[in-house]
Amino acid sequence: MVITVFRSRLRRDHAHEFQLLADRMLALAQAMPGFISYKSFLAEDGERCSVIEFESHEHLRAWREHPDHRTAQALGRERFYAEYSLYVAEPEREAHFSHAKGAV
Predict the structure, then answer these.
(1) What residues contact residue 82 under an 8 Å CB cut-off, 6+ apart?
(2) Rounded to an integer, what distance in angstroms lies between the CA atom of residue 103 and that of residue 74?
């Protein structure tokens, strides 16, 4: 599994346009081979954090290079983001717990 952590701050303008594009990109990502999950969080100070999981670096690379995603990346830099940071990693260790199932 490959995990991407995308931390960002949006500019104040174009919020509606950004959301439409973000929704379209999420639907496209979810349809990509190897997609596992996506979650997004908004902090009180306005920072956004998205966590995206793909099965492999190859699957993530295919998503990164998808023509529609490349266009959205460029629009993000031109119109939507005040700043962002991107981190890609493979888990060194995993642990899971579910009260109903116990530790795994």
Answers:
(1) 9, 10, 11
(2) 43
Total structural domains within the chain = 1
DSSP 19-40: HHHHHHHHHHHHHSTTEEEEEE
Domain residues for 17? 2-103
The yes-or-no verdict on residue 50 having pLDDT over 80 is: yes
* DSSP state letter for 12: S
pTM of the model: 0.88
Based on the number of CB atoms within 10 Å of its own CB, is 104 exposed (0-12), middle (13-18) or buried (19 or more)? exposed
> Looking at residue 28, which CATH number applies to its domain?
3.30.70.100
| Residue 101 binned pLDDT confidence (cut-offs 50, 70, 90) | low
Between CA 22 and CA 19 the distance in angstroms is 5
Question: Which tens digits make up the pLDDT trace of 22-40?
Answer: 999 999 999 999 999 999 9
Half-sphere exposure of 103 (CA within 13 A, CB side): 2
